[in-house]
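STRUCTURE:
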């Protein structure tokens, strides 16, 4: 296959991929759309293999970009919380939900806990109240895994209200 033809195919396939919904698209659909645009049968073995390589390369780049984006978001969140800010009891403050509510990570009797708790001020110190919840690592993982279902339920509930 000529370099010029490879470049045309690659540009066309990447363009289709960029405009596609990655949940619905298949390699076959991409190859078919590119075939139609280029007026070329891309189902022949050398073309098919090349399209597969372009798709795989595109997906790997997308995954890399997503990982870099997540890392940047985590770094930004750390910067917003003071990058290692601790409460007056020595617990790492992960984020402040409001003036009185904070998410902290702490060690309690040898177990790591994620606490979402209200705080109050006494003698110039911010101290945790009994209002809140502390989750073990297992509970936190279960909660985190179910966040999409929670968000879906909230959206469903909000759509009924409006």
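SEQUENCE:
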């Amino acid at each position: 296959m000529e370099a010029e033809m490879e470049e045309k195919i690659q540009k066309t396939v990447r363009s289709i991929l960029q405009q596609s919904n990655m949940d619905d698209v298949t390699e076959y659909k991409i190859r078919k759309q590119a075939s139609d645009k280029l007026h070329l049968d891309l189902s022949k073995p050398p073309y098919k293999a090349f399209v597969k390589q372009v798709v795989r390369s595109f997906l790997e780049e997308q995954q890399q970009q997503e990982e870099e984006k997540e890392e940047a978001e985590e770094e930004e969140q750390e910067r917003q919380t003071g990058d290692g800010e601790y409460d007056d009891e020595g617990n790492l403050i992960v984020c402040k939900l409001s003036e009185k509510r904070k998410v902290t990570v702490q060690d309690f009797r040898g177990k790591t806990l994620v606490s979402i708790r209200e705080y109050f001020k006494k003698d110039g110190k911010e101290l945790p109240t009994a209002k809140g919840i502390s989750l073990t690592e297992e509970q936190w993982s279960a909660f985190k895994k179910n966040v999409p279902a929670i968000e879906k339920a909230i959206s469903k509930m909000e759509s009924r209200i409006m």
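REMARK: The radius of gyration is 25 Å.
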